Amino acid sequence: MAIRIAGIGTALPEKVVTNDDLAQHMDTSDTWIRERSGIGERRVGGTTSTMAIEAAQKALDAAGATPAEIGLVVLCTTTPDQTFPATSAAVCEALDLTCGAFDLNAVCAGFPYGFITAYGIMCAPGGPDKVLLIGSDAMSSIVDWTDRGTAILFGDGAGAVVMEKHEQGELLSFDLGVNGSLQSILYCDLGDTIKMEGREVFKRAVRAVTASVQAALDDAGISADEVDVVLPHQANIRIIDAMCKRIKIPMEKTYNVLEFTGNTSGASIPLAMARAQELGALEPGKIVLMTGFGAGMAWGTAVVRW
Ligand code: UT7
Predict the structure, then answer these.
(1) Cis peptide bond upstream of 128, omega within 30
(2) For residue 84, is pLDDT > 80?
(3) How many CB atoms lie within 10 A of CB 241?
(4) Positions marked catalytic
(5) Is 249 helix (H, G, I), strand (E, B) or coil?
(6) Residue minimizing CA distance to atom 19 of ligand 1
């Protein structure tokens, strides 16, 4: 069975919050934020469902698909509009869909988890031919805007893809994992704001993502040299750089948007994917690596032949 990504769509709220904007009401600076994270600005506003719907519609248009062809909706989010129903139900309402739909929460590792899950369901007997996979997060709704340790990092956004059965495109390997003993270094209680031990998350993230990428590459029998495109979770450019150095993949193969979006959690990998596509990097046959990590601490990597 071969499955390809047939269309990509994105949605970002209009409101831009620059580092200088943040520096007006907290003790930080544009220079510090750029040097320590690579982030220059983030978008704020919109809800998980409105951004998801906009990105999904654009992905359908890009794929030349109609909503009626979609057999499953998977929405990766850690900021659902409500506790229930699942926010994917709002996407289904907007697109007039009655197929299966659910939310998936693996926080910043959500998109690889969603991709593997959707892929597996498509491969099951009678599995759908086309799936809408969305990452959408309104992180600004759970940020403490007085905490400089987290407020500088996060932003809102959505990215969506249409996955379809096709002779081109293939999952070569994946690696998913979670270390639940690290829940306390990054969490958000119900109704509260994000709490993070930044330095510890940084250290653990580098280790986890490096090990996950290496495991997935080994499993696929693919060497680091053979990787054409890396779509990393957009948390901190220094984490991406450290991972690349350890795996020995040049930074030039990574596609990044965090300078303009900050960390958009479940949306960050499809936003990076859209960037790679804009730049013409996603040609059929290319080896593409998606890798995410975050609270849990959860991680997920997928190696695909585009
Ligand atoms: O999706 C996964 C989610 N999260 C992440 O991946 C985040 C991982 N962590 C990080 O990205 C980094 O730890 C941060 C960007 C959050 C912080 O960078 P850092 O290099 O780890 O800084 P630090 O926490 O070690 O702090 C260094 C110094 C401290 O001052 P002293 O103790 O050296 O005097 C902090 O108080 O920088 C200070 N500091 C700041 N200064 C200006 C911390 N936050 C800020 C700030 N502006 N926003």
Answers:
(1) no
(2) yes
(3) 15
(4) 108, 233, 263
(5) coil
(6) 199
Between CA 16 and CA 42 the distance in angstroms is: 6
pLDDT tens column, 260-294: 999 999 999 999 999 999 999 999 999 999 999 99
E-strand ranges in 80-210 read 100-104, 130-138, 156-165, 170-178, 186-187, 195-196
Residue 29: CA count within 13 A, CB half-sphere: 3
Burial class (CB in 10 A: 0-12, 13-18, 19+), 165: middle
User: What is the average per-residue pLDDT within 193-210?
Assistant: 98
The whole-number average pLDDT for the span 49-62 is 98
Spatial separation of the C-alpha atoms in residues 259 and 234, rounded to whole Å: 9
What does the pLDDT average to over 233-246? Answer: 98
Report which residue type is found at 32: W
Nearest CA, atom 41, ligand 1: 28
pLDDT, residue 1, reads 75
- Helical residues (DSSP H) of 141-236, grouped into ranges: 148-151, 198-220
For residue 220, the model assigns a pLDDT of 98
- Ligand 1 pocket test: pick from 111, 202, 209 the residue with the most ligand atoms within 8 Å of its Cβ: 202
β-sheet bridge partners, residue 175 = 301
DSSP 233: -
**Domains of the chain by range and CATH?**
3-165 (3.40.47.10), 170-305 (3.40.47.10)
Closest to 4 in 3D by CA, of 283, 297, 294, 201: 283
Q: Is cis: bond before 297, omega within 30 of 0?
A: yes
- What is the per-residue pLDDT across 9-40, written as a single tens digit (0 to 9) for each? 999 999 999 999 999 999 999 999 999 999 99
Residues with a CB atom less than 6 Å from ligand 1 = 28, 32, 36-37, 108, 148-149, 152-153, 186, 198-199, 201-202, 205, 235-236, 239, 263, 294
pLDDT given for residue 284 in this prediction: 96
